[in-house]
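Dear colleagues,

For the upcoming journal club I promised to circulate an example of a predicted protein-ligand complex. I picked one with PBG because it came up in last month's discussion. The inputs are reproduced below in full, followed by the predicted structure.
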Amino acid sequence: MSFPHQRNRRLRTSAALRSLVREHQISIDDLIYPLFVTHGVAVREEIPSMPGVYHLSLDQLEQEVLEITEAGIKAILLFGVPEHKDAVGSSAYDEHGIVQQATRQIKRINPEILVIADTCLCQFTDHGHCGVIHRDPDSGHAVIVNDPSLELLAKTAVSQAKAGADIIAPSNMMDGFVREIRTALDEAGMPHVPIMSYAVKYASAFYGPFRDAAHSSPQFGDRKTYQMDPANLREAVREAEADVQEGADFLIVKPALAYMDIIKTVRDRFTLPVVAYNVSAEYSMVKAAAANGWIDERQVVMESLLGMKRAGADLIITYFAKDIAGWLADQ
Ligand code: PBG
């Protein structure tokens, strides 16, 4: 008897053979873990819509950083939840701001861990927008103005880098932010600090839980005049092209799951490292379904992240990083 139709299945007959021909892997080296830091003492408050993700006060960082280090995670993306908000987001670029303090502290605890500072104003402005507002005195109509916002973002980036941030990650989507920040870092004597640009960032409903976590929901309107329209692919190429020209060192595509084609396109068109941001709702939906016993969390997460790798992501920013570290360790 012959079995002539086993051509493809031949390479799947055992676990060892499957691992021999496996094209992509998730490695702990690929993962960036977001962290939310806040004021106060002994704060370790779970974010209701993001089980397993916490607001941490500075005194909690020691334990957290040791855990992260132990897990083998090499990079943290730092978000600040400040006490004080105002129209121009001044605590974003305060030398004693929460991100700046946390950065110094993390680097003291473990100088090897990479601190990536998210550079945006929305957590720090009382109106919750990522830039400065100009309100027309007659009509009351408000617009988010580009260039005055750039100035503040550049100040923020410089103060973060001065505090010891290894990488600056601007997420605000104003035009020209990479050039402005690059120039400011260079002029401040920090030409070695790379920019991980949120080059392609869509106006997405998948940021909902993050906005709960960061208290950064816009108080009026939405972010559609600066973040991208989910219907557009070619526009993503234009956005990424501009950032490459302006001096970006990494290109982030965000969100990830509904945007695999964008990850692939950016990978194919550019040679910089591509970073997929596995955003908050992509995390919360899996956690919710897993808590209900509807899915196998580990398998669903690994399958999703493999999809991002296959699409061309070099790195993945994910709230699952610690979970994954545990899974990889007991493989
Ligand atoms: C700030 C910022 C946001 C996210 C990262 N940086 C929210 C937004 O743009 O509204 C979203 C991250 C996530 O959903 O996990 N601009």
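Two points we might discuss: The longest helix spans residues 146-162. Residues 24-330 form a domain with the TIM Barrel fold (CATH 3.20.20.70).

See you all on Thursday,
B. R.
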